[in-house]
Amino acid sequence: MKIAVIPGDGIGKEVMEAALHVLKGLDLDPEFLYAEAGDECLERTGTALPDETIEIIGEADSTLFGAAGESAADVIVKLRREFDLFANLRPVKSLPGVPCLYPDLDFVIVRENTEDLYVGDEEFTADGAVARRVITRSASRRISRFAFEYAKREGWSRVTAVHKANVLKKTDGVFREEFYRVASDYPEMEAEDYYVDATAMYLITQPQEFQVLVTTNLFGDILSDEAAGLIGGLGLAPSANIGEKNAIFEPVHGSAPQIAGKNIANPTAMILTTTLMLKHLNKTQEAQKIQKALEKTLEEGLVTPDLGGSLGTMEMAAEIAKRIEG
Ligand code: NAI
Ligand code: MG
């Protein structure tokens, strides 16, 4: 198993070191292919994403990405495009011992990652600017199928499409239509759809109702950060960018320059990110081992300052690694 490792900038490097320490506690012995990207790389080499890094990702079975700084948008957007990573997966799962709004959540947001307003086709007009919103049938089908397959594999019974087809009749009309077309291939699965504004409210008032949400790029971006807020915030939120051939796993947070270099970043998001990767590589048992060890560590309060503890990033990782059961 070859895993490309891109630590990146700031706390990206610290949480990556912590996560690799935990990963090395398993009997997997993967080959790590180190690569660089981000601000420091830009400064040293003149590019934030060298060709060599792209080659290494292409060679690997999977990629772990820490965080980049100011160049993050360029790096990750370019990688999503280069490898056609069409699905952005954001699990929302409450963790024990973590102060949060809801201690009992377990759902996932599947966000379309390649089109919508994020195609970046904007132009100035005489009185402001306009942006093009691109929603294709093929991308809508592909993301819907991904959501149903994921739901089936993970044992969910319901998939909810989120859109605004009452106002965006054509674009979101296409998305909703293709969602239900795909849904008809999964008669054992419940399919429903909600408006995005109502969903934003239900995420606050009754988030326990959700299982798998699937939505377009912009709505998914916003709703998934809202959802991360329900379970304790950025230091705890993992994500995956998945394509047909490649996949890149990264925590939701950035390089956090204010706390970088102090060994106080919470490694939880990056460690959960590695469990997502392991599941994607069909190493479900290994993913569960890490999840359990992490939960024990959190329950015992052996955590970083953001969660009220006094451990450093690496010390917390060491406690998690110690609790991995053979
Ligand atoms: P950020 O996620 O780096 O930090 C936001 C807040 O959360 C800060 O107060 C930070 O201290 C805290 N935080 C984040 N991760 C944490 C962790 N693991 N443990 C404890 N506290 C944590 O986002 P911000 O401040 O908006 O951006 C900082 C830099 O990161 C910018 O240069 C931005 O471009 C980049 N960025 C990169 C991303 C990526 O590589 N995918 C994503 C988001 C931002
Ligand atoms: Mg975002």
TrEMBL record:
EC numbers, comma separated = 1.1.1.85
- Stated family: Belongs to the isocitrate and isopropylmalate dehydrogenases family.
NCBIfam families from the UniProt entry: LEU3_arch
Q: Name one GO molecular function term.
A: NAD binding
Q: Which InterPro entries match?
A: IsoCit/isopropylmalate_DH_CS, IsoPropMal-DH-like_dom, LEU3_arc
Q: What is this protein called?
A: Predicted 3-isopropylmalate dehydrogenase
In its keyword annotation, does this UniProt entry include Cell division? no
Q: Which gene does this sequence derive from?
A: leuB
Q: Which GO terms describe its biological process?
A: coenzyme B biosynthetic process; isocitrate metabolic process; L-leucine biosynthetic process; tricarboxylic acid cycle
Keywords in alphabetical order, please. Magnesium, Metal-binding, NAD, Oxidoreductase
For activity, the cofactor(s) needed are: Mg(2+)
Residue span, Isopropylmalate dehydrogenase-like domain: 2-320
Q: Which organism is it from?
A: Methanothermobacter marburgensis (strain ATCC BAA-927 / DSM 2133 / JCM 14651 / NBRC 100331 / OCM 82 / Marburg)
